[in-house]
Amino acid sequence: MIKKLMAHIGEYKKDSILAPVFIALEVILEVILPILMSRVIDNGVSAGNMGYVVRTALLMLAAAMGALAAGVLPGKHAAQAAMGFGRNLRKAMYDNIQDFSFQNIDRYSTAGLVTRMTTDVTNVQNAYQMIIRSFVRSPIMMLSALAMCIYINPSLSVIYIGAILFLVCVLAFIMVRSFPIFDQMFKGYDRLNASTQENLTGIRVVKSFVREDYENEKFCAATDNLKKLSISAEKLVIMKMPVMQFTVYTCILLVSWVGARLIVVHGSMTTGQLMSLFTYTTQILMGLMMISMVFIMVTMARASGERIVEVLDEKSSLTNPENPVYEVKDGAIQFEHVNFSYSGNADKCVLRDINLDIHAGETIGVIGGTGSSKSTLVQMIPRLYDVLSGSVKVGGRDVREYDLETLRDAVSMVLQKNVLFSGTILENLRWGDRNASEEDCKRVCRLAQADEFIEKLPDGYNTYIEQGGTNVSGGQKQRLCIARALLKKPKVLILDDSTSAVDTHTDALIRRAFAEEIPDTTKLIITQRISSVEDADRIIVLDQGRVVGFGTHEELLGTNEIYREIYELQKKGGDDDE
What we know:
The chain has 19 helices and 12 strands.
């Protein structure tokens, strides 16, 4: 995991090296100061030698100024390295997510991915900054101070070694016990983000059903769970401070008692040396305290790092072949004994033995009951999913032979859930062709019957669309999405229930425009309304993932019971309305 994370330091390696170098220089200068102070007391003050005091004081001042200068630079370099590291991690995750297939995306919740790119990266970023600063400074400080203590009086060093071993055991206990709790805590963040996102996205539905109290309870449950996990982790973490203070005070008492005996009884140590030992005691134990803080941060970051690496390691289930085809000949489509399962389990196929032969330029209707796998069928064409067995061909070649970008440029799909992005109408339309002129955009809007309502807007094609298209109606959103798809000039156009929110008259105008303006484009229209596909060249009838009928409207009325039943129910409903 660490190796994979460190690979994203990239151009910030220089800062990551310079920060520890300056920190090491700062620590060495700080460690020199107490021994100089002891000499001032022993050789200067006690001996009444003011010249020695002045010379040593100037040397101490120079060391202090050097430590100050060396202490400022690591902060700058460590901040640049940590922030750049976080930036690279977020970019790497975002870039990898963009390559995910639908199958990969199905494995993660949106809230989970957001938490990984925000909270988890921030934890790793903060831990990295502490590692290249505190985790470098503290061991050097501790070992240097310990070496000076041994140099001054080897017998007293036993006290420090015992204290260090005791604190290491306590920190190891805290880390082992707290890591699983931190792991659960970050999953709690996922649930909290999911609750918030779901509520904000569906706020209109929440208010229309007067479910604010229920949503509040759900949010409170997520926050309470997160609070409990945080408290459980903090109960372990807060043990660090009292244990650390106990160890510091115990060391000071022992050093004072033993040191006083060495000075008064044995005369083997001076007063200046004892004072310097007090300073080194603080440096050793403060170094341990900083190490403990880094360990706690690293424990949190370890859980976050594993979640980040999980996303970075996720590889798209769809890849280009070694020698991809970069041209789609036409919009002819063939399904040959296609079976498909979302789980990859042949016993749980949602499409079974699909065999279809669709000619280029045909208009094909797709109809069937809810859950009959209509959307799944058409998602095989642009290779949003790969078949479990069999093959899907476009333009006479298996879709797995094509370059993915080339295939998807040739197959334009208006998904069942229409999505518009924040920006002007023109900016949304140009998702189909970023270089399209305004006249090209107006042309496809006329085909999609969207030009009439756009021209009535105050700013016309420069009208700003709110996030999710909340300031346009469902029918208007559908027509804009159809226009956007047409701007790609596709060889295959798939409309997945994309005219359900428009009236039957507008639906008929859209189909007529398609027939007259894009006759060479193969059109697949998924719908629940037979009136939308009865003029199609042929109609596919699906039932429980199988093709149970494929023919013209008249042929299916005479031979297909499911189609005839749907037709009669809709005809009866239409008669009743009249």
